[in-house]
Amino acid sequence: MKEKKILIHGGGKIATQVADKLGLEVKMHNGRRITDQAMLEVVQMVYGGLVNKNIVSMLQALGCNAVGLTGADLNVVRAVKRPVKDIDYGFVGDVTQVNQKALSDLLENDCVPILAPLTHDGKGNMLNTNADTIASETATAMSSAYQTHLLYCFEKKGVLKDVNDESSVITSLNEKNYAEYLAQNVIFAGMIPKLDNAFSALKKGVREVVILEADNLQNIENQYFIGTRITLQ
Amino acid sequence: MKEKKILIHGGGKIATQVADKLGLEVKMHNGRRITDQAMLEVVQMVYGGLVNKNIVSMLQALGCNAVGLTGADLNVVRAVKRPVKDIDYGFVGDVTQVNQKALSDLLENDCVPILAPLTHDGKGNMLNTNADTIASETATAMSSAYQTHLLYCFEKKGVLKDVNDESSVITSLNEKNYAEYLAQNVIFAGMIPKLDNAFSALKKGVREVVILEADNLQNIENQYFIGTRITLQ
């Protein structure tokens, strides 16, 4: 693809492995990591240092002028520490602002921003932030300057009717049939935050959202029927 | 200071702590870390993720538009894996090229590059590289476009005649009296790589090198006699 690109990556499994090796207890709530000070250091190390720089160095070897960024670098993604309600998620950031100008400047210089799922609060603190949310917020912000396509890559062929059957891909999904699937408990729980993010992005100006298998990404130009294409209507 | 700045940081002590917690054995030779695959991951995490992003987020909080970079990001510092002679240093990089253009572009955009002591080989591999060397090589490369001052900050007041006496600062040092001090074994062994780097940078176009206490950096504008000023003659 000749289009300008931004890559947002995760690293949760590696963070959990490193935390285990360091003897830290990994605490989750509804699939979201609870991030105390020690765990913040782990995700900062794993996302910002290990995973991000492995991706950047590999892309550079392929001739792609990648630049790895956390939300703090160039102030690209600002967040606030999530307020404590029933659960204290710790050093977790809810995105407040994506710096479209800084990212556009890089894109216009033929750089490819590689965003780690880390934000900052503008007061000197790094925060852990879900990669899907950063992807959705970034796509939304970029849509004020570009026609933006948001591609969620994961290990399944797309959104499945039956999580155990890779041939059950829902090829297109709109708000109405998403609501129906939800009412019928068809959608796997782990998909719901990703889909909520997708619809949120579409409502704020993103042109298209596709949920697809990472290995299929290279085929997306040539084949229309890859993954699940999400639209409002 | 209103001058444009680049900060190069270290992090060796924290890397050693993290390696200890992970149960890895830290191997050194002549004060240089031997970097096997597991240690490369540690330094990548600690330098690129933990230390770099802590500095960047703190600078952003102070209104400084910092951007944290390893050598791989924007291809700013390219290196080759050190050839194995008597000692195999492992994944350690000897700098071959600093991307003056990429750094200048950032500086001209009022960004402040914060360089972690990590390089890449252009083939997809990250490498561990001494921060003093990156500082010297970067200052040298930047001197083709800017009048460049190279400031080495550390925990002592400057180069000392007596390592146990902070009042014994050598206020100025040139090649001739450096050779004399070396012959007399006056210079503390740990200073020698730093001083060799300093003279190398001066010979390649850097205007001035100062070795000073980090806490004194804020006073360098107002007081001439801070630290050790190094010149060729």
Could you characterize what this model shows?
The structure is a homodimer of 233-residue chains. Chain A has 233 residues and is α/β, with parallel strands linked by helices. Chain A has two domains: 1-146, Acetylglutamate kinase-like (Carbamate kinase), CATH 3.40.1160.10; 149-233, no CATH class. Chain A has helices at residues 12-21, 37-61, 100-108, 131-142, 175-183, 192-203; strands at 7-8, 27-29, 32-34, 66-69, 77-81, 93-98, 112-115, 118-120, 126-128, 149-154, 172-173, 208-213, 228-230. In chain A, helix 1 (12-21) packs across helix 2. The A-B interface holds A 18, 21-23, 41, 44-50, 52-54, 56-58, 60-61, 65-70, 72-75, 105, 109, 111, 118, 120, 122-126 and B 18, 21-23, 41, 44-50, 52-54, 56-58, 60-61, 65-70, 72-75, 105, 109, 111, 118, 120, 122-126. Chains A, B: Its main location: cytoplasm.
Set out the fold topology.
The structure is a homodimer of 233-residue chains.
Chain A: E1 7-8, H1 12-21, E2 27-29, E3 32-34, H2 37-61, E4 66-69, E5 77-81, E6 93-98, H3 100-108, E7 112-115, E8 118-120, E9 126-128, H4 131-142, E10 149-154, E11 172-173, H5 175-183, H6 192-203, E12 208-213, E13 228-230
Parallel strand pairs in A: 1-7, 4-7, 10-12, 11-13
Antiparallel strand pairs in A: 2-3, 5-6, 8-9, 12-13
EC number (chains A, B): 2.7.2.8
Enzyme class (chains A, B): transferase
GO molecular function (chains A, B): acetylglutamate kinase activity; ATP binding
